[in-house]
Amino acid sequence: MAKVTFNEERCKGCELCTAVCPVKIVVMADRINRRGFRPAMVIEMHKCIACAACARICPDVVIEVEK
Ligand code: SF4
Ligand code: SF4
Predict the structure, then answer these.
(1) Is the per-residue pLDDT at 1 higher than 90?
(2) Which of 3, 11, 14, 61 has the greatest number of CB atoms lying within 10 Å of its CB?
(3) Are 21 and 56 in contact (CB under 8 A)?
(4) CATH number at residue 12
(5) pLDDT the model gives residue 52
(6) What confidence score (pLDDT) does residue 49 get?
(7) DSSP SS3 for 6
(8) Going by C-beta distance under 8 Å and a sequence separation of 6 or more, which residues neighbour residue 23?
(9) How close is the Cα of 64 to the center of ligand 2, in Å?
């Protein structure tokens, strides 16, 4: 199964990754990181197709995708 990990403290909450996910499983968390932003996270990881679109679009290299 694919695994998507976020370096949450680096996330600036720009939401680009939520827009590009083809299966719409990247959402913004309710918590706030140390920089004061709501970090992105994945819900329903089992739906991830490991396309890495989220990782590619992130300007801050927050996301890592493993197959
Ligand atoms: S790898 Fe693709 S399917 Fe998986 S969370 Fe990222 S954009 Fe969505
Ligand atoms: S694209 Fe990167 S910085 Fe922007 S919300 Fe997603 S993980 Fe955070």
Answers:
(1) no
(2) 11
(3) no
(4) 3.30.70.20
(5) 98
(6) 98
(7) strand
(8) 47, 48, 49
(9) 11
Q: Which ligand is nearest to the CA of 7?
A: 2
In whole angstroms, give the CA distance from residue 41 to residue 48.
12
User: What range does the domain containing 7 cover?
Assistant: 3-66
pLDDT tens for each residue of 9-35: 999 999 999 999 999 999 999 999 999
Number of structural domains (the chain) is 1
Closest CA to 57 of 2, 12, 18, 30: 18
The residue among 67, 58, 1, 66 whose CA lies nearest residue 26 is: 58
The dihedrals phi and psi of 45, each to the nearest 5 degrees, come to -55, -30
Of ligand 1's listed atoms, the one at least distance from the Cα of 50 is 1
**Mean pLDDT on 35-52:** 98
pTM of the model: 0.96
Q: What is the mean pLDDT of the chain?
A: 98
